[in-house]
Amino acid sequence: MRKLAFGMNVSLDGYIAAPGDDLGWSVPSDELFQWWSDRVGATGLALYGRKLWEAMSSHWPTADQQPGATPAQIEYARRWRDMPKVVFSSTTSTVDWNTRLVTGDAVTEITRLKAGDGGSMDIAGATLAAAAMRVGLVDEYALVTHPVLVGGGTPFFTALDNWVNLSLVETRTFPGGVVLTRYETRRSA
User: Fold this and answer.
1) Radius of gyration for the alpha carbons in the chain, expressed in angstroms and rounded
2) Going by C-beta distance under 8 Å and a sequence separation of 6 or more, which residues neighbour residue 155?
3) What 3-state DSSP class applies to 159?
4) Tens of pLDDT along the chain (189 residues)?
5) Residue 126 burial by Cβ neighbours in a 10 Å radius (0-12, 13-18, 19+)
């Protein structure tokens, strides 16, 4: 069975995007950017919701060809293009860059993918992750908390019907007061 992780930059008050989908508060340091790049490099399959897919696919496929691209950006762009991806959307009609489109029920497909063989899976996008959280499919939460209060926007966590007990497995501090906390879901025997 594959492991499913949900990791995002998050404000101290729990949002992954400020109102208006503003991400300006979450610009990573070089060290944090490298951590995200290494995570992409180790991901067996990335699961994207439509909005985050559109944001990522509008930049990363050609980011390594942009004037002034740093070695780290070039490496990330290559890793992102090479990483197998699944996009869940009923409105997107085409995807590219080692990506497959799923227009049907996301929870059914994520459950099927988890049951298969392969490397770890990362889920990205608040709506998609919320669907997986609500049915208990997320095995790990990686919160990269930035020292900022944005006051609203897109929350990292969704409303749940039941408690989810977690175990802390890693903490790490990055420049600028950014803190990684990584938790695994405790499953009942």
Assistant:
1) 16
2) 14, 15, 16, 126
3) coil
4) 999 999 999 999 999 999 999 999 999 999 999 999 999 999 999 999 998 899 899 989 899 999 999 999 999 999 999 999 999 999 988 899 899 999 999 999 999 999 999 899 999 988 999 999 999 999 999 999 999 999 999 999 999 999 999 999 999 999 999 999 999 999 976
5) buried
